[in-house]
Specification:
Layout lengths: L1 H11 L3 E4 L1 E4 L2 E4 L4 H8 L4 E4 L3 H8 L6 H6 L2 E7 L2 E8 L2 E9 L1
Antiparallel strand pairs: 1-7, 2-3, 4-5, 5-6, 6-7
Length: 104
């Protein structure tokens, strides 16, 4: 019984991945690459959303240092649909800050 639970949990862990890199054909996208590299490998996004501005974020924190979660709220989120997966790439200041891959 324990073995089936481990297998089920292992299978569920593949449904969503936060990645540091993503292989696209023969190319590789990594956190820190430019937005131009994303467009070169994936083309134009199917969904393009902009996050909050830095002025709003700085007034909310009132001088406190933002953590990693605050960084993902800023910037742009580009969403692509490929091979049964939804890939969301967060672009902050022209560079990739987060890659998320979710199986549909």
């Amino acid at each position: 019984m324990r073995r089936y639970l481990v297998i089920a949990l292992f299978a569920c862990s593949f449904s969503a991945h936060a990645l540091e890199s993503l292989r696209i054909g023969n190319g590789l996208l990594v956190v820190g690459d430019s937005a131009a590299r994303v467009k070169a490998l994936l083309g134009n996004p199917s969904v393009h959303a902009k996050g909050g501005s830095s002025k709003k974020a700085s007034s909310k924190t009132s001088g406190k240092r933002q953590g990693k979660s605050g960084k993902s709220d800023k910037g742009e989120k580009w969403q692509y649909r490929r091979d049964g997966h939804t890939i969301t790439i967060t672009i902050v200041e022209g560079k990739i800050s987060h890659i998320d891959d979710v199986a549909r």
